[in-house]
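Continuing the series of single-chain predictions for the mutant panel. This is the parent chain; the variants come on the following pages.
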Amino acid sequence: MQAESKSLARRDSEEEAGRYTGWSFLTNHTHVLVCLVRDPDLTVRTLALRVGITERSVQRILHDLEESGIVRRTREGRCNHYEVEPSIRLRHPLESHHTVGELLDALR
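Parent structure:
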């Protein structure tokens, strides 16, 4: 029964990601951040399905976000837990007067 519900959740996530084709105002980095704020214990696989990108792309994005101090990863047993640091300033000069937290608040 549990395998069936996981299968249904995976299919729903795949369908949800599949609906959004073409371009978007937000980057995949932002999509990953939004997902992590909503559920900090998501797996790379689930993030990939929700955002609609490959697991390898999610791994690269997580690496970027960790390197810049925006995301902190801690191991909890065999799982990862992600914490977003809202006080970090956005990187691009056009947005650098805003923080990650401000961006995420605007997207809630």
